[in-house]
Amino acid sequence: MDDSSDNLIEIHDLKFSRGHRPIFDGLNLTIKKGEITALMGPSGTGKTTLLRLITRQLIPEHGVIYVDGTDISTLTLTELYELRQRFGMLFQNGALLTDLTVFENVAFPLREHTKLSNRLIRHIVLTKLHAVGLRGAADLLPAELSGGMARRVALARAMVMDPDILIYDEPFVGLDPISMGVIVRLVRRMNDALGITSIIVSHDVEEVATVADRSFLISEGKVAASGSPDELRTTNSDLVQQFMHGMADGPVAFHYEAPDYAEQLLGRDSE
Amino acid sequence: MRRVVNDIRNNTLEFLRTFGAFQLFFLRILRYSPAVLFGRFDLVVKQVYNTGALSLVIIMICGLFVGAVLALQAYANMSKFNAEDWTGVAAAFALVKELGPVMTALLFAGRAGTALTSEIGLMKATDQLSAMEMMAVNPVRRVLVPRFLGGVIAMPFLAAVFSAIGMFGAHLVGVELFQVDVGSFWQQIQLTVEMSDVNEGILKSVVFGVAASLIAVWEGYNTVPTAEGVGRATTRTVVITAIAILVFDFMITAALI
């Protein structure tokens, strides 16, 4: 660690497994303040799990996670909730509260954590909704929104408490090209205008390349490669090449682990 | 043989583990209840409306027919002894002490309990509970406790409505249909039904309210977050609540005799 004061999140020797399947096996990773960091990797490598570990929705079996110099496993529930107020998280499907309007969804953290007047809350919420271009949708219910709109509302909600860290879980999945462009631009603008640190979990190589300052490619429980998108593209590793260029077969096998094809077709392994 | 013993052992352990977790869950709900009741009463009121007010129609219709059928049965038997005047008393005792609280709780499980379970289960399946966690809002406190309190508050009122409408149904059958004298029909009830009988009914409906609401939010909170999981949890809510209510009913009645 050269200049550790710039490190917002440090993960040391993280181990975690689900059932008997190890997800992380000695993962080390550092996220720097003010940057956009992308966590990439094939599906099933536990990228979302990593986000849940960083925010202590899950507890690692081994290893330490520091957020802003604090070992998060030592926090009490109250301290943890205080820490989480510094995080904003954008869930894959938005995770808007379905019984509240768009306005009330964005106002939700303010109403729960502050005693601001209705006037002020209205002011803040409309500002945030305006920033994502949905001020006009304030009175709609989440069920009336398209996928892209729901994600933009969720982004407004994630920013409403002015967090230091914004986490995006698969922000580009299932969006049409226009919504995708809108989100990509929003991510960049939020980061630069508000001085936030952003973490993006994604496997959309192209989109990540346009926004991320630094990427980590995670595979088999470890960081397989890291660097700027251009550095990754030129990395001389089969796995990185396979992932960055979307090849079907390679170190990440196309076939799920299975018994021998011919044997199985001939029925020799049937009991 | 060895395997059977092992299976029994494992299942017993699993049951005890779940039961222990359920008790801890109950304590957690109780711990946050005062703060929610006095701090966020607006949330509780909304849930009283959702579980209570929206169950009123089914409670009233069922109450009317249960009261009417009780009067039919009572009249058919009482008239053999020329004791038709007691038709109302039989219906009143059955309603106030047993059928009011029990039927209301069973209907509540079917109408409101399932709604609570599937709502909370779907919130879990769509990451809404995780999102709250991430916004530093405790979902137990913000989502589960108001729903639990709403059910607990609504249940005694629903049982009272059920019994009242039931008595009206008994009146229709006894007085209007079989021409029992209206004065003696109601006076016999006044003379025989004591306040302690009414209290027994209230006690039961409070206990049932706690049990039914707690089971519903527990099942919702512990739903396997898939479409199938939500379906199963909803079914379990009805089954477990029905068993719990009938067992508690027996225990309370036995204790009070």
Order of helices and strands of chain A: EEEHEEHEHHHEHEHEEHHH
General form of chain A: globular
pLDDT < 50 stretches of chain A = none
Strand percentage of chain A lies at: 15-25%
Residue-averaged pLDDT of chain A, rounded?
84
Task: Note the main sheet of chain A.
Answer: 6 strands, mixed
- Secondary-structure-based class of chain A equals alpha/beta
Percent helix of chain A: 25-40%
Can you count the beta strands of chain B? 0
Strand order of the largest sheet of chain A: 6-7-8-3-9-10
Instruction: Bin the helical content of chain B.
Output: over 70%
Q: Which value, in Å, is the CA radius of gyration of chain B?
A: 21 Å
* Structural class by secondary-structure content of chain B: mainly alpha
Q: Percent of residues of chain B in beta strands?
A: under 5%
Rg for CA atoms of chain A: 21 Å
Pick out its properties:
heterodimer; A: 271 residues; alpha/beta; four-stranded antiparallel β-sheet; 10 helices; 24% strand; B: 257 residues; mainly alpha; 9 helices; 0% strand
What does this entry look like structurally?
The complex is a heterodimer of chains A (271) and B (257). Chain A is an alpha/beta fold and 271 residues long. Chain A has 10 helices and 10 strands. Chain A has helices at residues 47-54, 77-84, 102-113, 118-131, 147-159, 177-194, 205-211, 229-234, 238-245, 261-265; strands spanning 7-18, 21-32, 36-40, 62-67, 70-71, 87-90, 165-169, 197-202, 214-219, 222-227. A 6-stranded mixed sheet of chain A has the order 6-7-8-3-9-10, sandwiched between helices. In chain A, strands 2-1-4-5 form a 4-stranded antiparallel sheet, with helices on one face. Chain B has one domain (2-256). The termini of chain B are far apart. In chain B, 44% of the residues are buried. The A-B interface holds A 55, 57, 81-82, 84-85, 87-89, 91-93, 95-98, 108-109, 112-113, 157, 161 and B 122-123, 126-128, 130-138, 142.
